[in-house]
Amino acid sequence: MEKKNILVIDDESDIREFLCTLLKSKGYNVIETDDGTKAIKLVDLKQPDLIISDLLLPGIHGLEVIKYIKDKYFIPVIAISGIYNMEEIKKYIDELYIDNFIEKPINATILIKTVEKIFKDINKT
User: Fold this and answer.
1) What residue numbers bound the domain in which 39 lies?
2) 31, 71, 37, 25: which is closest to 50 by C-alpha?
3) What order do you get walking across the sheet with 29-33 strand by strand?
4) Residues 58-104: pLDDT tens digits?
5) Contact 47, 71 (CB under 8 A)
6) What confidence tier does 2 reach under pLDDT thresholds 50, 70, 90?
7) What is the predicted pLDDT for the residue at 1?
8) Burial, 71: exposed, middle or buried (Cβ in 10 Å; 0-12, 13-18, 19+)?
């Protein structure tokens, strides 16, 4: 089976490092960036299979990054945030077609199960 490419976008280096290490340990190829503007360029260049994006980003806000991606590609997005909670983000999930939302601090088991479910659902279509 071909390795899936996941783009991790988070301006906090410790969180980005945690996510990258976790995903690589599960056999995924990981691309990473710390800023919304760079993220858009990477998406256009690499077109990853999945994106995990923080919402509060320097450059371009995470919601704008997600809107750009969803307007242009059929790439699933998991939004993560330590600032916003599910109540605050609920309306954006439907508006922007966000595939899932996980609050920080991130539970590794929940994240991996979410990633695996998204890839399993994609393979069904």
Assistant:
1) 5-124
2) 31
3) 29-33, 5-9, 50-54, 77-81, 100-103
4) 999 999 999 999 999 999 999 999 998 888 888 888 889 999 999 99
5) no
6) confident
7) 63
8) exposed
Give the C-alpha distances (Å, rounded to integers) separating 87 from 41, 51, 91, 93. Answer: 30, 22, 8, 10
The span from the CA of 125 to the CA of 114, in Å, is: 17
Number of residues assigned to the chain: 125
**Which CATH number fits the domain that encloses residue 24?**
3.40.50.2300
Which residues does residue 115 pair with via DSSP β-bridges, in sequence order? Answer: none
What's the pLDDT band for 114 if we cut at 50, 70, 90? very high
Cis amide leading into 58 (omega within 30): no
pLDDT digits (tens, 9 = 90+) for 17-62: 999 999 999 999 999 999 999 999 999 999 999 999 999 999 999 9
Buried-exposed string 7-35: b where 16+ CB fall within 10 A, e elsewhere: bbbbbeeebbebbbebbeeeebebbbbbb
Strand, helix or coil at 104? coil
Considering its fold, how many domains does the chain have in total? Answer: 1
